[in-house]
C-alpha cells in the first residue's frame, strides 16, 4: 500500500541508533534528546494508529518535565485526556525498539492485533515544552503522523496539562470547554473569579503569590494567564526563562527533593510562594518563617487542603458523596495518618505514576489524587457532577451557596491530569474563601522528617517490588535488610524502587527526626548496592 511506502521512506530519515533499547516508562519515553528522533517519528505513527482505532483525537506531548534541559521525552494522550492504556504502552515499547529494517513489520503487527481499519481518518494534537530540542523532535512526530495520512493540529508551546485538556475538549465536542489555549484560560479563570467572590475582605497582601516558573513553559503560560485573572491574584513571577536554565536549581522537583527554596527567587519571610516543574503539571508551595526555616507544603498538604474544603462543602450542601484521597508510598506518614484518623476520609495507596493514581481515583464519587511531589488533581464522577448541578437548581440559602461553590470548584479543576496552573487557582481560591494563611494551612499536621536519595546501580531492574512499591521482593534479602535498618529508628519507614524516568534506584526514608531520616536513607542506599 502507498501509505506503507511513505512510512518506509520517512522512517529512513529518522533512523534508530542500532541496539538502542528504551522503554515507555512512568511518563512515556525519556532520555537524552539526541537519542529520540526515531522515537518521535514512531510515536507519530503510533498516535495515528491509536486515533484510527479509537475514532478519536489523540495527543502527543514532547517534554521531559523536570529532567535536565539536555533530555527530552514523549508521551501519548488518550481520548478523554488520560494516559494511554497499558497495552498501547507495550506497543509503544515494541515499535520504539524495532530495528530499522523491522519497523514496518512491527507496525503491521499492531494493526493486525488491534484489527485497525486503515481507511479510518486520524487526528493527532501535538504540543511541546520550551527545550531547545523540542522544536525538531516535534517535527519528527508530525512526519510520523503524515506518513500514515493522519491530520494534525500543532499547538506549539503548551504545558502538558494544556495538551491533555485540548484532547478532551475535542473528543467531547466542546462539552468540557473549547479546545484552544484561550478557551483553557477562559474556563479556569472564570471559575476562579466566581469562587473568589465568596472571599470576604481579602486584602491585596493576601492576593499576592510568588511563582517560580522553573525557567520553563509554565512561566510563559503564567504571563498569558495574568490578564484573565482580573486582579484577583497578583503574581510575582521568577525564573521566567529569560536568564536561567530549565529546572536548574529551581522548579517543583528541586524544591521538593532538596527541601530548599529555588535559586533565582526572592523569598520574603512569611510570604506564600510556589514552584512549577518544567512542563507545569506539578506544583508545590512553601514559605520561610521569621527564623529563616523553610516550610514545604507538598502534594500531600495540597490533597489535605482540597479534601478538607470539599468535605466541608459536601456537609453544607447536604450531599452524600463518597470522597477518597489517593496517594503513593512517597506520601508522608503524617499526612496519611491525618487523613484517615482526623479527617476520616478513605485513603488508597497505588504505585508511583499518575496513571495508577488516576485509575484508583475514578472508583469514587470524588477522588482527590496527589503524588507527594505535587502532581495531582481531583476527579468527579459523572453522577456526582449531575447531583451538584441539580442541587444548584433545587436548593436555596446555605445549601445553594455550597452547591454553587462545588460547581465552580469542579470547573476550576483540570480533571484530565495534574495541572500546576489549575491547581494553583484552586488552592488560591480555597485559601481566600477560608481566609486561611499559608502558615495555618501548614499547621493542619506536621510532616515527619523525610529524605529521598538516588542510587546508581548497574541494573536497576533487578529490584522488584510489591504492595504498591512499599516492599522489595527481589533481590533476595533486600527487604529483610531494610526491615532491620528501619527497626533501629522511631516512627521509621523506608522503601526502594527503580525509577521509571531515570537510570537510578530511588530510596525513601522517614523517621521521627531529620538526622534519623537522613541516616536511614543513607544506610538503605548502601544495602541497595
Ligand atoms: P520515577 O522516576 O519513576 O520515580 C518520577 C516521579 C513520579 C512521576 C514521574 C513522572 C517521584 C519519586 N517520582 O517518577 O512521581 O511524577 O517522575 O514525572 O517523585
Ligand atoms: Zn512534569
TrEMBL record:
GO terms for biological process: carbohydrate metabolic process; hemopoiesis; UDP-N-acetylglucosamine biosynthetic process. Residues 454-525 form the Alpha-D-phosphohexomutase C-terminal domain. Signal peptide: none annotated. The active site is at residue 65. Residues 179-284, 298-435 form the Phosphoacetylglucosamine mutase AMG1 domain. Catalyzes the conversion of GlcNAc-6-P into GlcNAc-1-P during the synthesis of uridine diphosphate/UDP-GlcNAc, a sugar nucleotide critical to multiple glycosylation pathways including protein N- and O-glycosylation. This is Phosphoacetylglucosamine mutase. It comes from Liparis tanakae (Tanaka's snailfish).
Amino acid at each position: 500500500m502507498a501509505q506503507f511506502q511513505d512510512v518506509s521512506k520517512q522512517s529512513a530519515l529518522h533512523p534508530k541508533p542500532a541496539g538502542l533499547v528504551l522503554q515507555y516508562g512512568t511518563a512515556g519515553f525519556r532520555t537524552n534528546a539526541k537519542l529520540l528522533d526515531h522515537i518521535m517519528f514512531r510515536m507519530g505513527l503510533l498516535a495515528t494508529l491509536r486515533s484510527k482505532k479509537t475514532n478519536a483525537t489523540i495527543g502527543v506531548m514532547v517534554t521531559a518535565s523536570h529532567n535536565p534541559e539536555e533530555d527530552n521525552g514523549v508521551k501519548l494522550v488518550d481520548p478523554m485526556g488520560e494516559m494511554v492504556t497499558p497495552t498501547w504502552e507495550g506497543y509503544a515499547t515494541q515499535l520504539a525498539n524495532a530495528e530499522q529494517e523491522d519497523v514496518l513489520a512491527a507496525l503491521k503487527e499492531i494493526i493486525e492485533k488491534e484489527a485497525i481499519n486503515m481507511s479510518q481518518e486520524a487526528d493527532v494534537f501535538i504540543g511541546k515544552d520550551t527545550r531547545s530540542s523540542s522544536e525538531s523532535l516535534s517535527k519528527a512526530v508530525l512526519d510520523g503522523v503524515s506518513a500514515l495520512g493522519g491530520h494534525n493540529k500543532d499547538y506549539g508551546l503548551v504545558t502538558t496539562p494544556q495538551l491533555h485538556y485540548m484532547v478532551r475538549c475535542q473528543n467531547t465536542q466542546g462539552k468540557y470547554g473549547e479546545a484552544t489555549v484561550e478557551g483553557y484560560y477562559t474556563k479556569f479563570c472564570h471559575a476562579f473569579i466566581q469562587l473568589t467572590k465568596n472571599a470576604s475582605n481579602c486584602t491585596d497582601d493576601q492576593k499576592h503569590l510568588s511563582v517560580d516558573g522553573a525557567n520553563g513553559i509554565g512561566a510563559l503560560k503564567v504571563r498569558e494567564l495574568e490578564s484573565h485573572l482580573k486582579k484577583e491574584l497578583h503574581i510575582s513571577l521568577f525564573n521566567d526563562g529569560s536568564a536561567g536554565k530549565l529546572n536548574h536549581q529551581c522548579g517543583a522537583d528541586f524544591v521538593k527533593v532538596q527541601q530548599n527554596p529555588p535559586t533565582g527567587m526572592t523569598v520574603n519571610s512569611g510570604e506564600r510562594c510556589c514552584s512549577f516543574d518544567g512542563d507545569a503539571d506539578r506544583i508545590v508551595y512553601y514559605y520561610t518563617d521569621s527564623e529563616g526555616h523553610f516550610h514545604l507544603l507538598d502534594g500531600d498538604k495540597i490533597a489535605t487542603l482540597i479534601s478538607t474544603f470539599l468535605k466541608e462543602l459536601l456537609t453544607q450542601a447536604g450531599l452524600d458523596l463518597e470522597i477518597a484521597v489517593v496517594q503513593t508510598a512517597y506520601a508522608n506518614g503524617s499526612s496519611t495518618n491525618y487523613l484517615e484518623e482526623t479527617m476520616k476520609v478513605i485513603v488508597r495507596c497505588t504505585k508511583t505514576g499518575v496513571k495508577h493514581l488516576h485509575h484508583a481515583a475514578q472508583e469514587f464519587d470524588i477522588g482527590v489524587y496527589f503524588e507527594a511531589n505535587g502532581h495531582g488533581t481531583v476527579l468527579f464522577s459523572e453522577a456526582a457532577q449531575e447531583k451538584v448541578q441539580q442541587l444548584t437548581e433545587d436548593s436555596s440559602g446555605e445549601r445553594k451557596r455550597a452547591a454553587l461553590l462545588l460547581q465552580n470548584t469542579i470547573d476550576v479543576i483540570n480533571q484530565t491530569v495534574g495541572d500546576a496552573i489549575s491547581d494553583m487557582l484552586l488552592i488560591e481560591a480555597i485559601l481566600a474563601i477560608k481566609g486561611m494563611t499559608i502558615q495555618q494551612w501548614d499547621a493542619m499536621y506536621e510532616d515527619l522528617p523525610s529524605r529521598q536519595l538516588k542510587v546508581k546501580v548497574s541494573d536497576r531492574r533487578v529490584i522488584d517490588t510489591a504492595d504498591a512499591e512499599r516492599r522489595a521482593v527481589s533481590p533476595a534479602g533486600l527487604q529483610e535488610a531494610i526491615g532491620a535498618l528501619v527497626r533501629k529508628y522511631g516512627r521509621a519507614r523506608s522503601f526502594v524502587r527503580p525509577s521509571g524516568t531515570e537510570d537510578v534506584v530511588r530510596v525513601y526514608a522517614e523517621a521521627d527526626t531529620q538526622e534519623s531520616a537522613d541516616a536511614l536513607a543513607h544506610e538503605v542506599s548502601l544495602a541497595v548496592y
